[in-house]
Give the backbone structure.
Amino acid sequence: MFPRGRKILLGVSGGISAYKSCDLLRRLQDHGFIVDVVPTQASLNFVGKSTWEALSGRKVYMDLWSDVEKIPHISMAKENDLIVIAPATADLLAKLAAGRADDLLTNIVLASTAPKVLVPAMHTEMWLNPATTENVDTLRKRGFIVVEPDEGRMTGTDIGVGRYPESTKIIKAIDDALIATSDLVGKKIIITAGGTREPIDPIRFIGNRSSGKQGFALAMAAASRGAQVHLVTANTELPNIEGITVTNVETAEQMLAVLDLEFPHCDALIMSAAVADAKVVNYSDFKIGKESLNTLALIKNPDILKSLSGTKKPGQILIGFAAETISDVKELEANATAKLLSKSLDMIYVNNVAGGAIFGSNVTQGLIIDRDKNIIQVPEISKDTLADILLDQLVSKLG
Ligand code: PMT
């Protein structure tokens, strides 16, 4: 699957309140969701396809017969973390209760195992009609979340129950439905990935073997748990993750410059990047001749974590990584603890990279150590799994 943050499918059926879903779409985007809109044919009488494409910034599919080779109903069913249908008309509720699938939206619903939130909106008489009541009961029994409509002014002069609710009420239902995977909603997390490069001349640089896989795994995991993620990445060749902010840097100083600006506004920083400890004293604008390469004067790079931890505000969490070439676990632990203390970190993950291990690999193993000297031994696991373990720890530290 293409890497991405949290994604929602917004189905729109043919009710006058379809226009209110334009606001819902915007609020969902503000909430950090990527939103795909699937309108029914009837809904286009109220809001056109171009409006949805302009607001969502994404192509809008409406039928089963476009891009057939991509099997749109199955791919969209799998790709989305949740489906919300707003407004859901009486006709659409009846179709879903009957398990019918005669257009793209109903096909996606039938094919999807994601949580589904329905937002009925219709005239009071239609809402209170026993047929609708029975359909809603059936859908609730099958696990659909049905948001109760509001009471108030209807289209025309009628007043009653059946109104499309405020966007905040719908978003609350969505958050509740995603609660198991929403423990970082509202948190801003900066993650660094990759390895910095320190140029020697226009051709050469001092660098390291980091691929960025660990940092990207952290960014993906944090985004899918609802965090607002800013990924600061150095010299990686991984595809961008849809829905998260990415800043590309080359050197340690550039990384520090970005973090100096962003760190004051975040809840947590996770430094998985491998930062070059030194750079050349004098960068040469021209290729240095082989004869002059016997000695290169180096100077230490700024320690980014140390510099940021000096500005840390109460409540902010700093997580570092440590790459060591030590096989003895006690020694590894001692070295990592010393780094944790010297850089004033809340937590550190230390891995033994002897022989180039872990760099570029899909798996990792090591120790997680925190300031209270709690230690978690991490056996060989995927970098994705480590990302979730570290985020579980982060959630408990953020409170
Ligand atoms: O990218 P992958 O291929 O997936 O590989 C993952 C990894 C091996 C790069 C990762 O697991 C890892 O170990 N990252 C940290 C590498 C590192 O720089 O370790 P260190 O022990 O040199 O530094 C300790 C900490 O200080 C790190 O969080 C580092 O980002 C930070 N640092 C280091 C130097 C510096 N000048 N400023 C820093 O802030």
